[in-house]
Amino acid sequence: MTRYQNETRLLHGGDYNPDQWLDHPEILEKDLELMKKSKSNTFSIGMFSWSQLEPREGEFHFEWLDKIIDNIGEMGGNVILATPSGARPAWMSKKYPEVLRTNNRREKMLHGGRHNHCFSSPLYREKISIINRKLAERYGAHPALYMWHISNEYSGDCHCTYCQENFRLWLKNKYGNLKNLNDAWWGPFWSHAYSDWSEIESPSSIGETMVHGHNLDWKRFVTDQTIDFYEHEIKDIRQLTPEIPITTNFMADTHDLIPFQSLDYGKFASHVDVISWDCYPAWHNDWETTADLASKVGFINDQYRSMKQKSFLIMESTPSGVNWHEVNKVKRPGMHLLSSMQFIAHGSDSNLYFQWRKSRGSSEKFHGAVVDHDNSEENRVFKEVAQVGEVLEKMKEIKGSYKEAKVAIIYDWENNWALNDAQGFSNASKQYPQTLQAHYRYFWDQDIAVEVVTSDADLSKYTLVIAPMLYLIREETMTRFAEYVKNGGTLVSTYITGYVNESDLTYLGGWPKTLQEIFGLEVKETDTLYPKDKNQLIYQGLPFEIHDYCSILALKEAKSLANYTKDFYANTPVITKNNYGKGTAYFIGARTTFDFLEAFYAEIAQEKQLLNKWVVQGDKEVSVQSRDFEDYTYQFVMNFSEQLKEIQVASSGIDLITGKEKNKNLQLQPYEVLLIKVNEG
Amino acid sequence: MTRYQNETRLLHGGDYNPDQWLDHPEILEKDLELMKKSKSNTFSIGMFSWSQLEPREGEFHFEWLDKIIDNIGEMGGNVILATPSGARPAWMSKKYPEVLRTNNRREKMLHGGRHNHCFSSPLYREKISIINRKLAERYGAHPALYMWHISNEYSGDCHCTYCQENFRLWLKNKYGNLKNLNDAWWGPFWSHAYSDWSEIESPSSIGETMVHGHNLDWKRFVTDQTIDFYEHEIKDIRQLTPEIPITTNFMADTHDLIPFQSLDYGKFASHVDVISWDCYPAWHNDWETTADLASKVGFINDQYRSMKQKSFLIMESTPSGVNWHEVNKVKRPGMHLLSSMQFIAHGSDSNLYFQWRKSRGSSEKFHGAVVDHDNSEENRVFKEVAQVGEVLEKMKEIKGSYKEAKVAIIYDWENNWALNDAQGFSNASKQYPQTLQAHYRYFWDQDIAVEVVTSDADLSKYTLVIAPMLYLIREETMTRFAEYVKNGGTLVSTYITGYVNESDLTYLGGWPKTLQEIFGLEVKETDTLYPKDKNQLIYQGLPFEIHDYCSILALKEAKSLANYTKDFYANTPVITKNNYGKGTAYFIGARTTFDFLEAFYAEIAQEKQLLNKWVVQGDKEVSVQSRDFEDYTYQFVMNFSEQLKEIQVASSGIDLITGKEKNKNLQLQPYEVLLIKVNEG
Amino acid sequence: MTRYQNETRLLHGGDYNPDQWLDHPEILEKDLELMKKSKSNTFSIGMFSWSQLEPREGEFHFEWLDKIIDNIGEMGGNVILATPSGARPAWMSKKYPEVLRTNNRREKMLHGGRHNHCFSSPLYREKISIINRKLAERYGAHPALYMWHISNEYSGDCHCTYCQENFRLWLKNKYGNLKNLNDAWWGPFWSHAYSDWSEIESPSSIGETMVHGHNLDWKRFVTDQTIDFYEHEIKDIRQLTPEIPITTNFMADTHDLIPFQSLDYGKFASHVDVISWDCYPAWHNDWETTADLASKVGFINDQYRSMKQKSFLIMESTPSGVNWHEVNKVKRPGMHLLSSMQFIAHGSDSNLYFQWRKSRGSSEKFHGAVVDHDNSEENRVFKEVAQVGEVLEKMKEIKGSYKEAKVAIIYDWENNWALNDAQGFSNASKQYPQTLQAHYRYFWDQDIAVEVVTSDADLSKYTLVIAPMLYLIREETMTRFAEYVKNGGTLVSTYITGYVNESDLTYLGGWPKTLQEIFGLEVKETDTLYPKDKNQLIYQGLPFEIHDYCSILALKEAKSLANYTKDFYANTPVITKNNYGKGTAYFIGARTTFDFLEAFYAEIAQEKQLLNKWVVQGDKEVSVQSRDFEDYTYQFVMNFSEQLKEIQVASSGIDLITGKEKNKNLQLQPYEVLLIKVNEG
């Protein structure tokens, strides 16, 4: 049994960078004391240690790291050991400039920043092999070693000659010959057909930017090349430490917490043993309610849980504010516990922080951390962290449990790339990820569990599948959708679906036949509205506002549930329902305000018995999420509001946080969270 | 007689890119069928075919083109054959990087995009000569050949060493010696005098940007070098096919449809046989009324008609939306016919589209086209195109007719360049083209024909000449203005007129003497206002708002028609009138809201009998434009509103569109257009 | 006695660029006439004359300059002679590209603009030595020579290999060894430790931007290297003309007139003999009142006066508008005299203009000047300039006098750099200079004299020292603050003070102990608010709004003057007072609206007897500033409003402007200024 298999605790702790404090032994000593006081048990080490591990080429220093790992091990802690490829030492950039990236304008970057390395450079690959191997050899058998943390937040691309050559090889491998490539990229347009592989270069703002197939393949290549680099990094590690699980930390994009845009994590997920990711919501901001944001946090955590259909790790989060939002506000009292519990509620087995101790200098010195510059256990943040540590210990029995869902929302990275790149519609209003968040919101409000999966997912387990705005859709996906509905599934799709195939080539001959069959209609035109333009639909006697997009539909077997009320397509269908095989397919032809989605999904949830049975009388701002283990359901009841709330539930149980019995009438203070263990046996 | 001379039909059709569909013979066949069904008769071919015509250096493939041209010829269609210089094949960029542009930062561009070629490169000129000659030799005598379409939408500049050398030669040719150049560029300022020609480089954001004479000469050079490239392209074509007319397609800038900013089309116009241009209004947008936009469409089409004082061609337009506006909304039913008729009303002999069939891939696949991806003749856009085709056949008798106007507005490219580059006033409020559109608006509202001409135009034929904001004005222009007024003309000028000569050097000794004489006043100061600053004038007892600019005037012979009411120049003149020789010169000293221009021009129109006699009781949103042929006047009556409208006219006639007799009381549905043939004989 | 020592007149005149007009002898002659008519006595010459002085390498032409200087001398004028390094001739850029800058992306700039020279280039230094020496030899003994004007508005940086090498030398000199540098820059963070000096490069947008110590040292180096270049320029000049004073013209940043951001003028000041600077307020703008802007003008002129604690020179200003504001509005009648007097009131001994005569061409041809393109003495601007010339003659007895102040505000360039670079808080709301302007405003409103000094200033002479937002504070500064308060001083500090030391490394162990002692409290957390977030404090029974920043304070000896009313720190202290030694230290824990600062400082001003005794009943929009000479106080009374104003003063006197006796009840027309000579003897 490895440490990973033996560990029964939920993980608490975070990124620990003792390499910044080697000259301050008193600090390192204090750290050990504070780790215990904060009930921390797991530390990620070495993410950016290369200049300490190998300060000069070939001169390695592991003594300091030995000491740190031993110390953590001695106090019963887990070490998540990172490979240091996230940043190179300056000597390497100086001696071997090829390790640095070349940007899309073909400028060789200078030494600096982090994540500024070429994924193709043979030299960089050789250097990372050497040091990774040394780390695996030295620490692979260390009893404290819990997991490998490969590099850090892989992202970005490189346009150097090595990468150009690899891109061409990738294309050759994909297309076989130039004829196929020219067909897929619609080569004759603007005379863009290639006559020799060597003519192909990566997209560039001073060169080619307009060929969508080209752009799409470049993004696919960047994902594949990043995975290839990752696989290169783990090769020896896997061989030397076959039982130690391996992860790398994923991310979200922007303060809206939409799925990371630059890499296809749907593809990357199968290469890691455990999903881990870094979550930084902008709590208490001034443009949305706390519940608005909490719903987005729910969405993306559900996505990460769904990736491998098992529990995952929060690898980084902040106990306070961050340093890179436009406004870096501190968490209000109570929010740290609440938001930590939300991670667990959605399937995380950890709450780890970036970082353990605030740096003293450079750009992240004001990023929230467990230990502040005051080095004190008396400040508010430290105390709230310690409280989370304590609570995590009380609830450790749920570790590893997985939450089932009957509703799936489909997020497709390639679709997102293609849609964003599409010239047409309106760039400002495409908003694919935000549209998914809006559809998700109904279920979050109603405490109905959701999975967020890719187009390739097995849909058979779901009662309801929601696939909005699948602008790029493969024939194969359409076939699987048809199978799913035929077999009794319920499918919802929307405007801007079914335009192009996997090469970003439009379907010819009208809306794809398979979609016509599933939905019993044909999409004839898509009207793109200006921001001030509004339309309307009447659904169940009530008016709902429409904006941005209106599909004009020609119905076949489908029946209309609602019509447009305005413009030249007034009185034509906008919301439709079609019985197909044993199932049902709904089509939402226009972008509506959220109130329509609420009314629409309420109907389906009722009909398909999707409602949360435990929540008798809920509250939209009180989120209830559960995890199951053996005969018990662990109900997380979370008040994401600044008001006192009350909800009614179907059964009583013990609140693991306070240890108190809770009856079916639950009262929650602002930001309060309960974890009620309910016997469902 | 050539096909061009024989053709009696108005042109209908557009850009046809069969080179994208050579692998789809069923599509090419369907095209022929749909061409007929849509009453299309003219197709522009080959704009971006170089990679199909010469897929490898020196290997030419014309068979496919032979077939297409034969097919079009057989069905009685016209071919407008393009030279392919708008985009190069990848092999050429790879083998001869000199054909690619160097941007102003002196970065050599990579292969990609289109229009990315150096206008000076000897190699590119050689390559285009070879293929143009082959095209002329092969198709010059083809009976379907109607016209040459040289390249596509010439634009942009190049800063490579060839271009630098050509710029220096151009300067030597212009100035003769460096003393003259240094004088013209005000060389001693900031030590910018040159001591050797080789020191001169083109303006650059990493070099010189602040010398206005330098910038102005560079823009002139870019126009001249573009024309030189064009002349190079047509040399052999002209020799081989002397009877085939030659054009290249011009453009407008931004969704405001202002004249294209980068090339002096006033100069370019004399080099083409027929003016043709590409017009893409953003109909149904949310920031202006339909009439607001229609007036701008009127303005720029009037400008293109005025360039050669004869009918012109719409070479590109869209039957639906485009793909490059911020919001790409589809045309509402009726708008396609209405907007097509507006082109003809202002002097076009065609309505051609970009493009015939929507591309399947790459960046323009969602640009509106006659044939959609559904390949159907049943959809709304195709039907509306076919309707336009039918209407064009009914009205073909007006082909070639030219509309006279008694009002001219002067648009001067060099003035626009110099004014935009001027450091002073306020960059955000200069708005030279928009100011001309505002002055034009009164005449459009009142259905009074206007020509839009350059400063060099012969003014003697006009009753009224409007020359706002001529910041840069040549001595010679002032003299011609003086002659015009002396001989009885009416001239209107405004604030920010008469500052600099053709070298962008200020006039010394006060406002130019010739202008002082014409207008009977001197401009003493120009006050530039902040956005929130307002002044006011009282004209004919009514107050009108002033913003942006206020000239302080010292009157001599002129009399004041209105004074300022505020600020330190309150009670001093702002609107003046001067009798000069047999004519009259008005000066508008400040920027006013449109209501003043209405009142002001109403007075002049009344006095000078400029009013449209046929329109007894018009409507500002119903535009009436006419073309004359023999004894008939063809009155286009166009309702650019979403309301039912009624106007009274002076005489009845047949509506060519419906074939019905119309009396003097005309009712128009929203977006309805009538074309009433009135016997004026 | 030198001309400088002998000159008893206040300086009036400005930048004179006859080198632009050498072909126009009639203009040069007219200039002499207009100089006299405008009562101008001082002219800065040669700022950009290099291409006229040395049109070809080694070929020098001084004849024209001889003539100009002789002419000015003959009419009794002073010449401020500039070295021409502000712009190079084109031949030099062409032959020696090393003289041009390399930008941070490592692109070599092209010839063009001005101020585009490398401060390290040996060749440029050699060339400037040669010409400076020639100027000093030729004109050093000329009786008209008043002062040296070195280069023009030094600014910007260069990243060429010479500069890289100099940066490394500067770092070696500062740190001695790499260990020290790595410690100061917090090297191990992101593996940024250096192992060899050669690895270090300047910050770059394509390289390193995130290491704050690195950025801060680069900015320090740029200041030092600029001063080094300046010292190189003056070496021979000083040797040849030891008695002629030397200056270079400083600047302000943005239309908000905040201290220039790119160079540490606090450091530069000790290298010039006389402070001179260029002041361009945007009078009559539409976003603030005239008094708002006048207060900012007061602030920065006070800063320049404080630099050497003596009178200074306005080297450039405009008699009308400029050409580089977003809106270039002309000065309203009266504003020129008023704003000119304000310069003198705050300690200037000059009002000099850029420029004497408007250029005819190139980018500054519409910048306001004494003589316009009309070459006339009859226009409004010329007459207002002549009026200023006349008034300056009437008040010359105040020349050289210095105004004492009991209040100091600390502006620290390094703090500004570090705070702007800090990642944390909120970038949009840091606003360090604007915060100082807000604190200054109370004193300006109340006509209380202020000095604006650096952290290094001797504080012992002040009754009140205001040091807001000293994010970066040296140990030594804290010690001096402690001494100052201990000895009876009154110190005010604020939120975001005391975070980092001079290396931008945070203080460890909590808020710095010295600050804790001075203020009797500890800062525990800083809450950064979103723009819509508001808090509140109650001070003396009145509520005041809080935004942007809230420090959470733990009081020790201090007592609370006001508490927060909202959020989780409601009822905790926000404004505190501490008795420390013989003095008092106030801490303002949150950013408030200005009304709080008014109430707060009113209390202190009352208690510390800081109020202006001469102003019995003032007006916030009427600024009173004074200069003292022998037994007299010269009271400048300036109405910065568009209304008639009345104030009461303590004693009567003669208004030097009108020559009239004024009693204690002063009435002022809009924009009127009085200069009342009061006998205090």
UniProtKB/TrEMBL annotation, chains A, B, C:
Q: Where is the Glycoside hydrolase family 42 N-terminal domain?
A: 15-394
Spell out the PANTHER family in the cross-references: BETA-GALACTOSIDASE GANA
The Swiss-Prot or TrEMBL record describes its family as follows: Belongs to the glycosyl hydrolase 42 family.
What species was this sequence derived from?
A: Enterococcus lemanii
One Pfam family per UniProt: Glyco_hydro_42C
Question: For the Beta-galactosidase trimerisation domain, which residue ranges apply?
Answer: 405-610
Which InterPro entries would you find in this protein's record? Answer: Beta_galactosidase_C, Beta_galactosidase_Trimer, Class_I_gatase-like, GH, Glyco_hydro_42, Glyco_hydro_42_N, Glyco_hydro_b
Q: What is this protein called?
A: Beta-galactosidase
Q: What is its EC number?
A: 3.2.1.23
Top-rank taxon: Bacteria
